[in-house]
Amino acid sequence: xxxxxxxxxxxxxxxxxxxxxxxxxxxxxxxxxxxxxxxxxxxxxxxxxxxxxxxxxxxxxxxxxxxxxxxxxxxxxxxxxxxxxxxxxxxxxxxxxxxxxxxxxxxxxxxxxxxxxxxxxxxxxxxxxxxxxxxxxxxxxxxxxxxxxxxxxxxxxxxxxxxxxxxxxxxxxxxx
Length: 176
Prior knowledge:
- By secondary structure, the chain is mainly alpha-helical.
- The protein is built from nine helices and no strands.
- The model has no long low-confidence stretch (mean pLDDT 89).
């Protein structure tokens, strides 16, 4: 990632890290979800010419935003699976008074995201924090890179059009 791309971050990663470190495990999941929702909203705003008309036309769930980002190829299907799982587990806290994130949940989320890595990575000290931080940052990098690719596509289209105009002008001139 270049310094220019790093400047495109829509939040301060140090602040995210501090928030994850300061919270209980259920709070870490909620913090992660809030950041991911922010990223999805920013991604839709980046890629939809009139995103506000969609986003402000009634409540849009996290799942709605994930699905639309998938449909627009802003996030890939593998990341979307993890985002949906995080959303599902976060929603459990909204309907129960149990605020525990059992190790089984941590491992399930982690294995869905990174199946080949050992579960000890998420269960060790700061493992859950690091996992959630990685998911948020990867989602943000996906947003940034799809934005960069869209900019390059527009630049390529402009240059193709310009080259076509030059070619037409060259052949339209009378030959002596």
